Amino acid sequence: MGQPPTSTFNISTTHRQAHYLEQTFYESSSKKLIPRFLKHENPRNDLIALLTGAMTPLAFEPFGLFPIAILTPAILFVLWNDTSRARAAWRGFLFGFGMFGVGVSWIYVSLHTYGNMPAPLAGLAVVFFVALLAAFPAAVGWLQAYFQTLAIGWRLVLVAPAIWVLLEWSRSWFLTGFPWLHLGYSQVDTPLAAIAPLAGVYGVSFAAAASAGLLAAAWVDRRLAGRLYVPAAAALWIVAWLIGSITWVQPLGAPIQAALVQGNTPLTIKWRPEYRNEIVDKYLALSDSALGAQLIVWPEAAVPDYFDRIRPTLVPRIERIAKDRDADFLVGAIERDPGKSTYYNSVFVIGGAAGSYRKQHLVPFGEFLPLPALLGGLLNYLQIPMSNFSVGTGDQALLRAAGHVIGVSVCYEDAFGEEVIKALPAASLLVNVSEDSWFGRSFAPHQRLQMARMRAIEAGRPMLRAANTGPSAIIDHRGLVLARSPQFQSYVLQGSVQPTVGATAYARIGNVPVVSALLIVLGALAWRARRLRSS
């Protein structure tokens, strides 16, 4: 026999009351435990959000103060607690404006110093771009406020970190992508980096954001700090450390000797015809000094002319050195299709092997112009040389040099993990060629090297990174920098690198699992939050 309707009503009512009492307990506890200066009505909190955001780039290179990438998001998460959705979005925007305003300030150098944009216009462009990027943490603040009915632990440890990472991921493809200052990059020298071969940079970002959430929860709900949140944070890092003991790849053959030729050619003279021979002669002389090298790499667009035009005189000289050294060359150059107005940012193999790679992920405004009908006169105004490229096709054959299959990326391409792993598992070595002189003496070259290290960890492959003005680097498959050149010097960086075979989990499955898992978790918690609101 079933229960009478009145009994069902009483059980349902009791269930709703339990939810209400649970939520009231957590909310009232959080209000009592949050320090007065962090109360949501205190206007200084907005300034705290801005300043903590401005501190966050200190976690990345060239500073490398990685704990800051956990501390500053933790402060932001506390500032989001017990606030309205609009206020949370505003604080997220201020945090992002501080973070990107400091962290990508190098854009001003690219636009003004090397792009010839007037200082006021360059400053305005940077402010607009930083505001656009700041909209992402603002969206995190606005979205996480939807889950206010959940208990503090759920909101701070799962909800905010999950949304944060999903918005990082969306920033990697929105308007062709700008994946700078992901939290995971700051952790390349910590135990959390061991998550990268399993779940990529976004898995590392989530571990860092969850650590921040645990710290914030311990701060807000001190009753459970020692019993729950601190032990959970310790467990997270211990698990990451244990994951680091997994062997994903194996050595392939003997180590090879590599030489990265850093020409240090100033952009002010690079494309001027009267300096062409001088620049080429310097690269050839530096290459000739690389005794014992099996693979010699020149940076992005190292050849200061169209490759088809300079090829008859340049290639025989390179081939003589290659024959004398029993080496292969990878040479960055601008390629054009004869009889067509199409240009490619390419890398050529010269020596015992042959082949070429055309860059596929172009930089907006630097290498191609979005909305050309609307912005057609902008490139002429900026006077950026070699800035109207075509996209290389996605079915290009992998290059082979020094007896190995090589996954080549050009400059900006190594900021995108899923693009780098397209060469795997066939490639046993990664090579990135870059023209970092666009960034001057800013944070950007160091940030880019940190990203390259993450790509090596994700892929389980060593990476050779040759940059015109440096730093060039030889990186092993664990992301450790084995050798690094000084910046702004003509230099030949030589060293040994061990190619590898096999595949990490990330190389096989990419970002899909971590993104899907975060969406599922958020969906389940959103359903729970909705039920609590309706109870």
Features:
single chain, 535 residues, alpha/beta, Nitrilase/N-carbamoyl-D-aminoacid amidohydrolase, 2 domains, 6-stranded mixed β-sheet, globular
List the helices and strands and how they pair.
Blueprint: H1 5-33, H2 44-55, H3 68-80, H4 85-103, H5 106-114, H6 119-144, H7 152-171, H8 196-220, H9 225-243, E1 249-251, E2 256-262, H10 267-270, H11 276-288, E3 295-297, H12 307-325, E4 328-336, E5 343-350, E6 355-358, H13 372-375, H14 378-382, E7 399-401, E8 404-410, H15 417-420, E9 429-434, H16 444-459, E10 463-467, E11 473-475, E12 481-484, E13 491-497, E14 500-502, H17 505-509, H18 512-534
Parallel strand pairs: 2-3, 3-4, 8-9, 9-10
Antiparallel strand pairs: 1-14, 2-13, 4-5, 5-6, 7-8, 10-11, 11-12
Q: Count the helices. How many?
A: 18
Number of strands: 14
Helix content: 40-55%
Radius of gyration: 26 Å
Biggest sheet features = 6 strands, mixed
* Major β-sheet strand ordering: 6-5-4-3-2-13
* Backbone shape: globular
Distance between the first and last residues' Cα? 28 Å
Strand content: 5-15%
Q: Compute the average pLDDT.
A: 90
Q: Which residues sit in consecutive blocks of at least 5 with pLDDT less than 50?
A: 1-33
Structural class: alpha/beta
The overall number of domains is: 2
